[in-house]
Design goal:
Helices cover about 10% and strands about 15% of the residues. It is built from six helices and 15 strands. The strands form five sheets. A four-stranded antiparallel β-sheet has the order 1-2-5-15, with helices on one face. A hairpin with a 3-residue loop joins strand 8 and strand 9. The chain binds 2-acetamido-2-deoxy-beta-D-glucopyranose and calcium ion (CA) (2 copies). The site of one calcium ion has 8 residues, from loops. Pfam families: FGE-sulfatase.
């Protein structure tokens, strides 16, 4: 059961992009969406220009007396559930084995964090995202203007449809000249794991663990592919913002959106949560590992350390042929400083009775 938590309720919309991966027909092949590592210059001492994100809670605690527009959260009861799958769509991602996992009750935001919400946050805190500090972010080439395209220097070898674009950030989602003013209710894009972390802390929240995220995705159903069941399109309806057509060349946008969609455009799952799959990938707090056992686990938080963080849910760029990752058990990863035009987040919070 769930109860709605009383938080400021705002209607928000989102935009985001998905990273797709070649998986299904060629199971050995990877999509490349997990290889979007930022080429880091030797910028170790570069603290002054950017923000000190080491102690975000302290630094951004001045939200008192400022009107914030946080998402409504849903209280989930937690309990035992089956995490992962024994019938993995993409075995090399560590989707299996299926195992019994316990999660304590927790809150989770009902939709992905929107541009409007993130703008409010930056207006109040003057937070500068990693993409802004590094000066670039990954954008799906199909979304770039000819101008921006002609200025590109290189693409990602494993996924040529991704380009690091100078000047791409959450306000300029397709690089210089693009804007989000017409999509304030779409999910925020080009936020790194660290950025997402700072936002959630500022909001008095935190990122969900992978287990919490997957529990939330499943909506109380057991051993199903999607948040609503096993059929991708019940009664012929689209239940998520995904890619229809021929990836990466032609998106028919049969679901109404070739890019991100406003949040809450597709039906909620039984927990009242929107866009758990599709629209944008969502960061979780766990480090990435593909090794899991069948052992029961209580409130698992992932490995102690790692180099990549887990993201869940797939995005508007996911098509079965390349990125069959719009399933609750599916998972992928990026380095914590990565950002892209199909990657966002939502926050969670502890339940303290
Ligand atoms: C952020 O600040 C800008 C400039 O003052 C303003 O136009 C915008 O409405 C603010 N956004 C939010 C969500 O408060
Ligand atoms: Ca779509
Ligand atoms: Ca999503």
């Amino acid at each position: 059961m769930m109860a709605l938590c009383v938080y400021s309720v705002w209607l928000l919309v989102w935009v985001s992009v998905c990273v797709s991966e070649k998986c299904e027909d060629e199971p050995a092949q990877d999509c490349g969406c997990n290889t979007l590592h930022r080429v880091r210059a030797e910028e170790q001492g570069d603290e002054e220009g950017g923000r000190d994100v080491k102690n975000p809670a302290e630094k951004y605690s001045e939200r008192a007396n400022k009107e914030v527009i946080l998402s409504q959260m849903v209280l989930l009861q937690g309990g035992w559930f089956l995490m992962g799958t024994d019938d993995p769509g993409i075995p090399q991602d560590g989707e299996g084995p299926q195992r019994s996992v316990w999660v304590d009750p927790f809150y989770i935001e009902e939709h992905e964090v929107t541009n409007l919400q993130f703008q409010r946050f930056t207006n109040i805190t003057h937070y500068v995202t990693e993409a802004e500090r590094f000066g670039d972010s990954f954008v799906f080439e199909g979304l770039l203007s000819e101008d921006v395209k002609s200025s590109l220097t290189h693409a990602v070898a494993a996924a040529p449809w991704w380009s690091p674009v100078k000047g791409a950030d959450w306000r300029h989602t397709e690089g210089p000249g693009s804007s989000i003013t017409h999509r304030m209710d779409h999910p925020v894009l080009h936020v790194s794991w660290a950025d997402a972390q700072v936002y959630c802390e500022w909001a008095g929240r935190r990122l969900p663990t992978e287990a919490e995220w997957e529990f939330a995705c499943r909506g109380g159903l057991q051993d199903r592919l999607y948040p609503w069941g096993n059929k991708l399109m019940p009664r012929g309806e689209h239940y998520a913002n995904l890619w229809q057509g021929d990836f990466p060349n032609h998106n028919t946008a049969e679901d109404g959106f070739s890019h991100t969609s406003p949040v809450k455009k597709f039906p909620a799952n039984a927990f009242g949560l929107y866009d758990m799959v599709g629209n944008v990938w969502e960061w979780t707090s766990d480090w990435w590992s593909v090794h899991h056992t069948r052992e029961h686990a209580y409130n698992p938080k992932g490995p102690e350390k790692g180099s990549d963080r887990v993201k869940k849910g797939g995005s508007y760029m996911c098509h079965k042929s390349y990125c069959y990752r719009y399933r609750c058990a599916a998972r992928s990863q990026n380095t914590p400083d990565s950002s892209a035009s199909n990657l966002g987040f939502r926050c969670a919070a502890d339940f303290t009775p």
